[in-house]
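Okay, is this right?
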Amino acid sequence: MASPCTAEDPMDPVVQGTINVLTAAKKFRVRRVVRTSSISAMVPNPGWPENKVFDESSWTDLEYCKSRQKWYPVSKTLAEKAAWEFAEKNGLDVVAINPATCLGQLLQPGLNASCAVLQQLLQGSTDTQEYHWLGAVHVKVSKLSPEFPVHRFTGETQPGLVACKDAAKKLIDLGLIFTPVEDAVRDTVDSLKAKGYLKQQKN
């Protein structure tokens, strides 16, 4: 289900759509449902203990997001909480995957939240995205796309962020091969240009 990014977009269809899928899964006795959620259901969470690595027990602070009009994480959190509640009440085996920044060729007609962040960075945005921890600000972005006015952040923009050395170890052990970040950024930039979401800045 697509999640709203503005206050004008209704939240109910996102939650109800999740419940509808799980209801159908239960009806047809699906053994396990793997649900693609988002890191936005886990962060921002400013109240998380300092120096503790984030894990699946973290939930996005809804009031924090609402006060800053961050509606995308609000919708993702409400939908995931509804999924877990349904699973517990109905004995359904549900697994949630919470990816962070999703880059690459745009497969949909619109601009998704992850690529919108990269688009904004390439256009010179100075929004620090505090407490979001998208992992999108890579040091090589400006080198890969020198024609864009990428702002270089000199100070700490992610308070409380703790590095996790083996964050992807479980996935790597399962055989997942990651796309190099340089390739992901380059593919995204090419796609943004092709779809008219990104234009080279004039000198």
Summary: The longest helix spans residues 71-90. Confidence is low (pLDDT under 50) at residues 135-139. Helices lie at 12-27, 62-67, 71-90, 113-122, 141-144, 169-173, 181-194.
